[in-house]
Amino acid sequence: MKRLAAIAMLVLAAAVLGACGSQGIAVPKTSPYHRGAVLFLDHCSGCHTLSVVGAEGSATSIKDRLKTNGPNFDFRKENVEQVLFAIRNGGFSGAIMPENVVVGEDAKAVAAFLAQYSGLQAQKVPSVNITLSTK
User: At 107, phi and psi to the nearest 5?
Assistant: First the structure.
């Protein structure tokens, strides 16, 4: 009976531990963006959300929002220049994000990663061609 209980506990523990890794980095280790993903997870995930690395640092509702909740990069698309500016200057407002949270090649790796993976869940708005009259 003790043996059966011990086996059941081991199976349960394995299931729980297996689930813990499911929120990890989904960028393949062979990807040129993997290093940036690791750096983002280590340095940015406390305040920003990005599903591809399992980061949930942004507020999900206004009433629960904290001063340190940063933009949700699942929905907000960024380019390399914007990310590098934010890293160097402490975001765009300079109020909360620390300046130079990563520097040098690390900053470039995070910027390239975010440029590739940010905004993947952003709403796609169809464009409309408008012809202006010259009369």
Answer: -65, -40
Q: Which residues contact 28 (CB under 8 A, 6 or more apart)?
A: 34
Q: How far apart, in Å, do the first and last CA atoms of the chain sit?
A: 91
Q: What is the DSSP string of 45-77?
A: TTT-EEGGGTEE-S-SSGGG--TT---BTTT--
Q: What is the pLDDT along the chain (135 residues), one digit of tens a residue?
A: 666 555 555 444 444 433 333 468 999 999 999 999 999 999 999 889 999 999 998 877 666 767 677 889 999 999 999 999 999 998 887 678 889 999 999 999 999 999 999 999 988 777 788 888 777
Element (H, E) at 86: helix 80-89
Question: Quick check: pTM over 0.85?
Answer: no
